[in-house]
Amino acid sequence: MITLDYQSKDPIYLQIKNRIAELVMLGVYPPGTQLPSVRSLAGELGINPNTIQKAYQELEAAGITCSVSGKGSFVAGEGGARDILKGRAETKLREALRQARLAGIRKEQAAQWVEQEYEGGGKP
Question: pLDDT per residue over 80-111, tens digit each?
Fold first, then answer.
């Protein structure tokens, strides 16, 4: 469920945090779901447990998860996950718009694509 992109400019812990937020929003991890333990996820992904711990700490700080001493981390709700995804979407959209402007794409064309996407007619 969680895959890492080693070519990405995003740090590994941030990729993990963002992917878990996505899984919460998709309902794969509904409220009350226990997340994999730090050790098991680190072993599965082949990375240092401290990296997983940092991702989990950020998820808790964002209100997406809560930790129960001796039991692990559990999904608290999706409110914080929505905020994380909105922030990522804004960053990506702004970058795409910057690139479109540099490529000479007119604002009207970009607006048309946005409208098509929101109407569900955009290409996957």
Answer: 788 888 888 899 999 999 999 999 999 999 99
Whole-angstrom distance, CA of residue 61 vs CA of residue 50: 16
Query: What residues does 37 pair with on adjacent strands?
Result: none
Coil, helix or strand at residue 5: coil
Measured at the CA of 59, the angle between CA 56 and CA 34, to 5 degrees, comes to 65
- Helical (H) or strand (E) element with 72: strand 72-75
Separation of CA 86 from chain center? 9
Count of Cβ atoms closer than 10 Å to residue 29 Cβ: 22
User: Rounded CA gap, 93 and 33, in Å?
Assistant: 31
Give the count of beta carbons closer than 10 Å to the beta carbon of residue 56: 24
Question: Helix axis angle, 49-61 relative to 38-45, nearest 10°?
Answer: 120
Output the pTM of the full model.
Answer: 0.71
Among the listed residues 111, 69, 64, the one whose alpha carbon sits nearest the alpha carbon of residue 85 = 64
Helix (H, G, I), strand (E, B) or coil at 81: helix
